[in-house]
Amino acid sequence: MAKKLMVASMALAVALTASACGNSNNGGDEASTNGNTSSNTTNNAASTDNTTANNTAATNESAPKDKVTFSLFNGVANAPDGNTNETTIGKALEDQTGVNFKIEHLVGDLKTKIGTMIASNKYPDVIDPDAGIDQLLDAGAFIDLTPYIDKYPNIKKVYGPYLSRMKAADGKIYYLPFSTQVGAYTADPNINQGAFWVQRRVLKEAGYPKIKTMDEYFKLIEDYVNKHKDENLIGYASLTNDWRFFATSNQPMHLAGYPNDGNVEIDMNTHEAKTYYTNDDTKRWLQALNTLNSKGLFDKASFVDNYDQYIAKLSSKKVVGFFDYGWQIANANNVLKDAAKKDPAQDDFVYQPMPITFDGQPDQLLDPPGFVNNRGIGITVSAKDPERIMQYWDTLLSEDNQILRSWGIKGETYEVDDKGRFYRTAEEIAKIDEPFNLKFGFKYYAWDWPQYGTNSTLSDGNALAPGLQPEVFQLSLTDKDKEILGKYGVQTYAAQFATPQDRPWYPAWGIPKEQGSPQQIWETQKDEVTKKYYPKLVLAKPADFDKVWQEYLGAFGKLDTAGYEKWYTEQIKTILDQVSK
């Protein structure tokens, strides 16, 4: 029987992140962990001391001593394949539980990969399918976790407030989400969500202008490229690969001053949901890219490059500017930041986030608190020992081990002052680079597991994520970071951006939709139309733009957009009614 998600409400006091990671697509995979400010977001720098880990093991007297390895498929290509026990964090967890996971990350197309699993009816023990979750639910690939949850105190503690929202239409729970808020909400001083990014050397050469509008941003890029024609620079690149197409299609929403609610903009007064794909904002955005292309400033390969090629280009120092979500470009940002720490001259190539809107209106690029309920990790029907997997997850969800996966080991990756505040020394921050993140396990445990949401607070008041701990953030800044922040009169990157407005439904893209429902079908059809016409619109001769736009409107007009908007408006109002009670 197909497993179908029921619509679930979102509450105010929950934290979204990473972003991301994001996705209903448009939703940006909220997989961002915002942790490791020494090398930026996705590599959530976090941890615990050896005594803490030992205490956790000691209290778990029923932990099996025999060792077992489970297979885990991760639907995002964010790290090399490997065994968790080959990392410091994973080895500590294996010592406590006897469990190791052999992780396979996505290579190629996600839907094709999952389709192959479904056709064979053979699955890894555990799957984090990201945007492919509906395929697996519809195929009945996940077991019901409900009978296990009450057995495990840490799982019950973390997910207890959200259990009613996690239930499918049949009343069962098939996966655990990643964005559950534990404790008070801790704001992020970094930019792990949407921003228009530009190389720091561009701002420096222009005298650190306080640009706010789209036209100012593109003029800044154009002027720089024209002054450096011998460098063979790419003025502006955009990500369109597969489900990540939202990194190109979301901009009209953001430029108009809306947060990442996915396919809809929600009026703060009427709470009506409206799509934006055929409005004047989208036309204005695509026409701006068309103009860039006509001037040789747009990277035409944006419509054919895969994600790895895109990240490689950003890392190459040739791309002057782009829009994307911080969690999604973390690998490129980390490479550039690591190089700048070793050679301050390389800081010129680090990307600076800018809060750009169409006409300088307040942005809403920073995420308000939210709960993403349409992404998570599940145990498959092929798993021979679900109990051991649930025991592992329960152990992982102890506060001690959440400190381990976030802060690391006391005396090695963090310290505690006489007031009990966690911090990192300059030496510790310097050593936590990309290779360290992989070896220690921060990279593998930053997301994709049952966990406290990134913006959570520990029971002693410390931030779960080191990057959100003020002491760590400030100490992690290089002299060059402080210099450019000073030029803009701020002490954090987030301070340049507008304060997010409370939106109880946020993110709207995280409201589950049944597989095969009119809403899900609309999104599939919308993807087909936009992916067909956006390249045509951007790459057309400027004189032909209006003609292609009319063709695009004709194709989009065949979709039941009014029905989609009506459904979303109903969901938003239902959530508001529940929150007000």
From TrEMBL:
Q: PROSITE patterns from the entry? A: PROKAR_LIPOPROTEIN
Q: Which organism is it from?
A: Paenibacillus taihuensis
Residues in the signal sequence: 1-20
The cross-references to InterPro entries, in alphabetical order and at most eight, read: Bact_solute-bd_prot1
Q: Where is this region: Disordered?
A: 22-61
For this entry, the protein name equals Aldotetraouronic acid ABC transporter substrate-binding protein
KW Ribosomal protein (keyword) present: no
Keywords assigned:
Signal
Q: Where is the composition biased (Low complexity)?
A: 31-61
Family annotation (Gene3D superfamilies): Periplasmic binding protein-like II
